[in-house]
Amino acid sequence: MLFMVEMDVNIPLGFDPEEAAQLKAAEKARFQELQQAGTWRHIWRVVGQYANVSIFDVPSNTELHDILMSLPLYPFMTMHVTALCRHPSSLHDDDR
Amino acid sequence: MLFMVEMDVNIPLGFDPEEAAQLKAAEKARFQELQQAGTWRHIWRVVGQYANVSIFDVPSNTELHDILMSLPLYPFMTMHVTALCRHPSSLHDDDR
Amino acid sequence: MLFMVEMDVNIPLGFDPEEAAQLKAAEKARFQELQQAGTWRHIWRVVGQYANVSIFDVPSNTELHDILMSLPLYPFMTMHVTALCRHPSSLHDDDR
Amino acid sequence: MLFMVEMDVNIPLGFDPEEAAQLKAAEKARFQELQQAGTWRHIWRVVGQYANVSIFDVPSNTELHDILMSLPLYPFMTMHVTALCRHPSSLHDDDR
Amino acid sequence: MLFMVEMDVNIPLGFDPEEAAQLKAAEKARFQELQQAGTWRHIWRVVGQYANVSIFDVPSNTELHDILMSLPLYPFMTMHVTALCRHPSSLHDDDR
Amino acid sequence: MLFMVEMDVNIPLGFDPEEAAQLKAAEKARFQELQQAGTWRHIWRVVGQYANVSIFDVPSNTELHDILMSLPLYPFMTMHVTALCRHPSSLHDDDR
Amino acid sequence: MLFMVEMDVNIPLGFDPEEAAQLKAAEKARFQELQQAGTWRHIWRVVGQYANVSIFDVPSNTELHDILMSLPLYPFMTMHVTALCRHPSSLHDDDR
Amino acid sequence: MLFMVEMDVNIPLGFDPEEAAQLKAAEKARFQELQQAGTWRHIWRVVGQYANVSIFDVPSNTELHDILMSLPLYPFMTMHVTALCRHPSSLHDDDR
Amino acid sequence: MLFMVEMDVNIPLGFDPEEAAQLKAAEKARFQELQQAGTWRHIWRVVGQYANVSIFDVPSNTELHDILMSLPLYPFMTMHVTALCRHPSSLHDDDR
Amino acid sequence: MLFMVEMDVNIPLGFDPEEAAQLKAAEKARFQELQQAGTWRHIWRVVGQYANVSIFDVPSNTELHDILMSLPLYPFMTMHVTALCRHPSSLHDDDR
């Protein structure tokens, strides 16, 4: 099941740079794990923002919630979730 | 170059159903042409709305503008365009 | 899977009252069918509005979309969909 | 009498984790007490947010106010209250 | 139980003036009936607007809903309902 | 002359509780003084908020401004002022 | 007593030009009458808008309401009223 | 050339009162200098707010910008600038 | 003196196409006249919208107002005007 | 390819003035470098704000993103990016 998740990241001025770097590395590792599993299907940067637009493919709302809440950068993120579904005109099986 | 385009369709109550059906068929044909060309890379329905979230891959802003303005349903659409770019963490070459 | 759907109904001034009555009767029949099936789990009126707050329990986003788009009053509704999930503190199995 | 209460929780970065854990435990205990009393009829998590949608059944506005203001996490919450009432089409006596 | 109801009235340009006058007279009669019953406790005009701020005292949400929906000018009104309760500092029993 | 004033109070987390208690006591005393003088005609709590809706009866805008700016809790309040006037349909001389 | 009133005028496309010209002439005459009386103290156009920012000096809220509601162009206007008062730093008696 | 400038002042809780008093005195002095020069033509307090509505008469946008940015309280202000012009109906040469 | 003007054009569905074409031709002619005069310094299309972002260079607010209000498409436009000034860091005399 | 970027700068009260001066000097140097390269085609100050409206000409979305994210003042900026394209009516080759 598909969801668009728009994530804005806001790390406060003066936050310890080393801790920030560790969180970002952990976030990247977790992201790639989920990408390889096919759960985090797409991610794009929003130009000029520390933000992304992502597409998730999950078996249930609960699983999506658990994934998002456990992201390393979650405490610094504002999220907006939109439920999507396959468009009937699409020729790609992939855009399920 | 990647852009997210969010399209809301609003065909007024009492609009001629036959004309609406023709416009939708023309829209679908144009969409599939652009999808096969790799220009309209993704499309998803927004649950509960006559609306979609789409990802375009175009050589320039001008080309995107010309594509959007000439869509058969354009006069009935409200559009919101967001410039995107490849996310450095992505493992997929495809999310360029 | 649970979703909150907030529905506002706006039938234009001067709309044929008989046609409106037929649409409302069809909406009520469809609602009760879905309520008995356990799909439309809850519905409440919003005080002072021709509007409701509803909870749906569906197997997928696509099924929710198809249900909402085919409601008899859909062309007169503005909808807002929010993905929900079971709260871990809840003592009721029912609030799944 | 029914009310929807939408609660967003925002515990600041750097808040003492032990105190936070105690507040959350107290909140959970209070919630379950109210749920068993039939006052806090429903609670659902909002996907991707530290937030919930709740339905309260109370004898008066004043009682609802007193309950909400005395929640252990109240100082960290933003609340939005919507007065609801039974929908005439509902087949369930329960959705009073 | 107390509620603030903010009502904005918008009668479209070109609406039959005689029908408008009848609706306003019926609205005034209904208002005074409810005012005398102590249900519609207060009403004030908003300066520069065809709008009012009102305070209702009703036994239940449902009764408020039924009163508001059956006002003669309801189809021309936008309403915003806010649940209130007695303020503990008030010296007036009347501001219950 | 009548005005509605909507006041939201926001005392920051970690503010000295004793100082807060003193400010609240001073606010209550000032409120009751103004209520007895007939200046602060009504006050109601907004359910679920540390907020109130109030009606003031003052001889001039300037007097209202001076009263509001000198409230003990003013530095912690967000205020919204709406000019009101007597509604011609009202049967109560009191709703002047 | 001083008030800022922001007025936006919106005469619909296709409205009879002669009737519009009559309404504008009546509005101008009424404005100049009020300006000479010292009631409508200032008026300025907002650049690029069919809109103005005005300052009224009136003895009461009710008088302001009656003046605004009886303007010839009132049915085509959206108004926003803000209560003002003399600024203590002003050297001009005129900015009362 | 005329501009409306709406200024909201927000001095944080706990800011040194002596420094605040000095800034306010400097602001008042600068204001009166500009008022006497005819540049800051009008100022009014907004009732219930630490805010003002002002009218400036300046030879150019740049001069207005330089004046506003160098106000002693500028770092504590949020400003909204609206370009105005003389209203053709005005009888006062003064409302140029 | 420089101003940014953001213009959104909205010609209603069903508007006579011939009249629309005449208005657009008149708008284009007027635009080019003002562009050659150096008054309408820049114009850009907003991607996906029937809208533009423009930069005007005018001797006064009044002249800008008169130019905008007399544009052939003005009755179909929503405008937003922002006063600009030369940026001190700019190396181009042209960005005055 | 053209983009409008609206930048608001917000340096917190109490930020070290020397560090701020260094950041501003670095920002100015970087800006002038990009202006000379033809990338940062235009910049204007917004009157009364520590903000600018800028026009960028870049080969791709990604390049724009990299430029914006690496600006010395980026951590203090809020940005809004709008994709633009050449207007067909423009007589200037320069407004490409």
TrEMBL record, chains A, B, C, D, E, F, G, H, I, J:
GO biological process, alphabetically ordered: beta-ketoadipate pathway
Reaction catalyzed: (S)-muconolactone = (4,5-dihydro-5-oxofuran-2-yl)-acetate
Documented EC number(s): 5.3.3.4
Pfam family of the protein (one): MIase
Top EC category: isomerase
Keywords: Aromatic hydrocarbons catabolism, Isomerase
Domain Muconolactone isomerase: 1-89
A molecular-function term among this protein's GO annotations: muconolactone delta-isomerase activity
Pathway membership: Aromatic compound metabolism; beta-ketoadipate pathway; 5-oxo-4,5-dihydro-2-furylacetate from catechol: step 3/3
Family the UniProt entry places it in: Belongs to the muconolactone Delta-isomerase family.
Complex and partners: Homodecamer.
Protein name: Muconolactone Delta-isomerase
Organism field: Sphingobium psychrophilum
